[in-house]
Design a protein that fits this description.
Blueprint (H helix, E strand, L loop, with lengths): L1 H8 L8 E5 L1 H12 L5 E5 L15 E7 L3 H4 L2 H10 L4 E6 L17 H6 L1
Parallel strand pairs: 1-2, 2-3, 3-4
C-alpha cells in the first residue's frame, strides 16, 4: 500500500499506478487492490482470490489470468466472479485452456504453456 502511495506521487509518475503478480504475488496483487483505493489496475496471474467481504473494497480494474488446468486456484473463480459482479468491479478474465498453474514460468517446462504465456 505504501508503494502505491509513493508511486502515485513520484515526480516521474503519471499518478496512475497498477500492479501485477504471479502465484503468491498474484494473491498479493489482489490484496493491494483490496487495500489501496488509489490503485488503477491489477493484473494477477493464477493467484488466490480475496475474501468475499473484501471484494466490494476493490476500486481498481482487474485483468485476471488463470490456467484452465489449475484446479486448486480455479475452485475459487465462480464465487469470486459472482462477488465482482455484485460489487460492480470492472474486470476481464482470461482462462487459458490446457494451461496449468504457473504457465508463464518458462524455467519449469512441465508447467510452461507458451501459447497462454504469449496471450497473457
Amino acid at each position: 500500500m505504501a508503494a502505491v502511495k509513493y508511486l502515485k506521487t513520484h515526480p516521474l509518475s503519471t499518478g496512475k499506478v497498477g500492479c501485477t503478480g504471479f502465484c503468491w504475488g498474484s494473491g498479493m496483487a489482489n490484496q493491494v487492490a483490496v487495500r489501496s483505493p488509489d490503485l488503477k489496475v491489477a493484473a494477477p496471474y493464477y493467484g488466490s482470490q480475496p475474501a468475499a467481504e473484501d471484494v466490494p473494497k476493490i476500486k481498481a480494474s482487474l485483468l485476471l489470468h488463470y490456467g484452465g488446468r489449475d484446479e486448486r486456484i480455479n475452485r475459487g473463480i465462480p464465487a469470486f466472479e459472482a462477488d465482482l459482479k455484485k460489487a460492480k468491479v470492472e474486470y476481464k478474465m482470461h482462462i487459458y485452456p490446457g494451461a496449468a498453474h504457473a504457465f508463464n514460468n518458462d524455467t519449469n517446462l512441465e508447467r510452461y504453456h507458451k501459447e497462454a504465456a504469449q496471450l497473457g
